[in-house]
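Subgroup meeting minutes
Present: P.N., E.W., G.H.
Scribe: E.W.

1. P.N. recapped why we're keeping a running log of single-chain structure predictions: easier to compare across weeks, and new members can see raw inputs and outputs side by side.
2. G.H. added today's entry (105 aa).
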Amino acid sequence: YYYEIQDDFNLDSNMLVETKAILFNIFRDYLCTEEQKKKIIEMQKEERIENEIKKGQKFSNDVFARKDKIVENNVNTELVEIKKESISIKIWNFIKQILRKIKRK
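Output recorded in log:
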C-alpha cells in the first residue's frame, strides 16, 4: 500500500478512517510538542468519558424497558427444580441404552 501526502495535506480528503487514525497516532506519539500531546490526551479522555456516559444512558434505558416488557408479558420467572439422578439410575439408564443399540442391530 503506497500513499503519498502532499504539503497541502487535508484530513478531509478521501482517506479511510483507519488511515486517519494511524496518522493521528503518529502525530500524537512522535511529531507533536509536549503541550500539544497533553491537550490531545486530555481531549481523548473527555471524548471517552462522554462516550461512556452515552453508552451507560442507552443501555440503562434498554434494560429498564426490557424489564417492563417482561412484566407486561407475565413471564413466569419462578425457579425450576432440577432433579439429579442418582449414580445407580445413571448406570441403569446407560446399560439400557447399550441394550437398545444392540437390539436394533
